[in-house]
Amino acid sequence: MLQETALRAADPALFDPPMLVLGEEHAATSLAQLAEAGVTPRLTLLEPCPRGTAGAIALAALNAAPNQLLLVMPSDQVVGDAAAFRAAIEAGRPLAEDGWLVTFGVTPDRPETGYGYIRQGEPLRDGAFRAAAFVEKPPRELAERYFEAGDYLWNAGIFLFRADALLAALEAHAPDIFAAARTAVERQKVEGAAAKPDPEAFASAPSAAIDRAVMEKSDRVAVVPADMAWSDIGSWEALWALGPRDAAGNVLSGDVVAPSSTGCLIRSDGPTLVALDVHDLVIVATERAVLVVPRGESQRVKEAIDALQARGQKPPRP
Questions:
Q1: What pLDDT is attached to residue 237?
Q2: CA-to-CA distance for 39 and 34, rounded, in angstroms?
Q3: Domains and CATH numbers, the chain
Q4: How far apart are CA 251 and CA 236, in angstroms?
Q5: 3-state DSSP: the chain helix, strand, coil percent, rounded to 5?
Q6: Predicted TM-score (pTM) of this structure
């Protein structure tokens, strides 16, 4: 996924070499993966501690030229239609150059409860609209209403903006994050193509998603709809949807036997797992725990996480 994300923006005629923002513990593996794909980052920013996407993006923007356009992409997504992705970027580019904060919304194909939504407002230019509202992951009934309304898009978490526009918005709407990130970058240590922002300064930043810190508060946020075969695979449901599925519609991984079972994602990272004549379930076994949840309800896994953490146990994760 990291390789595919980087290669999505690897055309040197359109994009500069990327900046990579990640925890230091993942740096060696990630850089090896990028090297395998033929991508060399301009700069690798090693987050001293996790502070959400707002802090991570602030570090990148502070290490960029003020008028530089930044395309922000999470590395855990699938984009099946690269041409549609590039068309969406081009549609948003004039607004980003004009100081708008541009986000990208995916046209829903089902009432999904696992994604946030963006309500599409009035047109700003061809292919781009004002972002009228950001909505957190909705319950099923509300997701169905959004799907039927036709003006709600899945929030892909992909952004395009000038570095100075993003930093100005952060300073206005999340000054604590802006100040902490600025000090961390002013004191950062650079070794070759790697930069280590100051740990003490960065740790003082509140942890927040960029959506809540800035996008929900700014009055210059645009959304570009994109039908680009997108999936955020941070859920078990998404892993099942991406396959590969067998003839019975199952996605099986590890030591698994599933006679007469259909439509399931079944994975074992340890013991032999036997699922006999079960249907449309997510079943995940680790050395510590077994998760069983109806497929389509896997976003409720947070309830399982909370229950296990209350007992001091680690949950199975996608």
A1: 74
A2: 5
A3: 2-232 (3.90.550.10), 236-310 (no CATH)
A4: 11
A5: 35, 30, 35
A6: 0.80
